[in-house]
Amino acid sequence: MKKDILWQPSDDFKSNSGLSHYIKWLEKEKKLVFRDYDELWNWSTIKFQDFWLTILEYFNVNYEGTFDSVITGSFMWQMKWFEGIRLSYAQHIFRNATTDHPALIFANEQGNYTEISWKELKSKVASFAFHLRSVGVKTGDTVVAFMPNIPEATIAFLAVNSVGSVWSSASPDFGVDSIVSRFAQINPKVFIAVDGYHYNGKAFDKTETVAAILENLPGVEELIILNISIKMGR
């Protein structure tokens, strides 16, 4: 059966893509030549340690410490990547801060549109990170979120990451059992949740769901509720 091509990049699009730039960098800096994507993919899977070393260099990843090998351990569940170094994803996000364009652009199905500048995002992240530390959250602790894909979720994630804590999240359309099975095994210290969400023109109250989840997370020391009921017209 003939398949129609839905979209195909132009030569100009391909030559200006990030992947093309990376291939050119490999040729210039590492004397590695790849004629097409398949050749690059084969090299990245066979010589994967070399591949990840170039990624570290190409993206100018900032880190502390030293490492002897890209991975250690013989089996997947034993492997550790770049053992001996520490880095912050949040730090790398904010090193690209600019006044030329917003950090976040958000719109929902109700027609609400929001832009958050890099300055505002940094301030909100710093404020929430301060709160997390004030309630005893430290490196290695776990913070979980029961939230839709909204700016507050991004702010919370970056704050948790900047503290050095573990982050896990789930969509509010999940049921209690699936949420508990995900969160209970990592014993969260802080639980962030919305009291509801809006989807396909309907408002869904999740207050009872949040309460049921909390009952099954005995290690939670702080519950943070984001009240969006007013926005949903309840």
Distance between the termini: 51 Å
- What would you report as the Rg, rounded to the nearest angstrom? 22 Å
Indicate the overall shape: globular
Show unreliable segments. Answer: 230-234
Q: Describe the biggest sheet?
A: 4 strands, parallel
CATH architecture of the largest domain: 3-Layer(aba) Sandwich
Mean pLDDT: 93
Structural class by SSE content: alpha/beta
Q: Which fold name corresponds to the CATH topology of the largest domain? A: Rossmann fold
Give, in spatial order, the strands making up the sheet with the most strands.
8-7-9-12
Question: What percent of residues are in strands?
Answer: 15-25%
Number of helices: 9
Quickly list its features.
2 domains, alpha/beta, 12 strands, Rossmann fold, 9 helices
Layout of secondary structure:
Elements: H1 11-15, H2 18-30, H3 37-46, H4 48-58, E1 64-65, E2 71-72, E3 80-81, E4 85-86, H5 89-94, E5 104-107, E6 113-116, H6 118-134, E7 142-146, H7 151-163, E8 166-170, H8 176-183, E9 190-194, E10 196-199, E11 202-205, H9 207-215, E12 222-226
Parallel strand pairs: 7-8, 7-9, 9-12
Antiparallel strand pairs: 1-4, 2-3, 5-6, 10-11
Helix pairs in contact: 3-4, 6-7, 8-9
Q: How would you explain this protein's 3D organization?
A:
- The protein is α/β, with parallel strands linked by helices and 234 residues long.
- The chain has 2 domains: 11-86, no CATH class; 92-232, 3-Layer(aba) Sandwich (Rossmann fold), CATH 3.40.50.
- The protein has helices at residues 11-15, 18-30, 37-46, 48-58, 89-94, 118-134, 151-163, 176-183, 207-215, and strands spanning 64-65, 71-72, 80-81, 85-86, 104-107, 113-116, 142-146, 166-170, 190-194, 196-199, 202-205, 222-226.
- A hairpin with a 5-residue loop joins strand 5 and strand 6.
- The longest helix has 17 residues, at 118-134.
- The radius of gyration is 22 Å and the shape is globular.
- The model is unreliable at 230-234 (pLDDT under 50).
